[in-house]
Specification:
single chain, 73 residues, 3 helices
Length: 73
């Protein structure tokens, strides 16, 4: 019983921290937007940085291939 309660309390604390961190990230994006940065581009860069180099290159190659096939480049 005590172990279960401790787990639940830890999860609650972590969820609160996650919410606070999420709010902080939103604030940084809002600040960046206020400074003239394109938030969509920033989000894309963050997403790309999470990928390893080979995975990112593969996706870029596929995208380029598809764009070429559609006459977009």
């Amino acid at each position: 019983k005590d172990q279960l309660k401790a787990c639940i309390e830890r999860i609650d604390r972590l969820e609160e921290e996650k919410k606070a961190t999420s709010d902080d990230i939103k604030d940084v994006y809002a600040e960046a937007k206020g400074n003239g940065f394109d938030v969509k581009a920033l989000r894309a860069i963050i997403r790309l940085r999470k990928q390893d180099t080979d995975e990112r290159r593969e996706q870029e190659t596929i995208l380029e291939t598809y764009m070429h096939a559609l006459g977009m480049i």
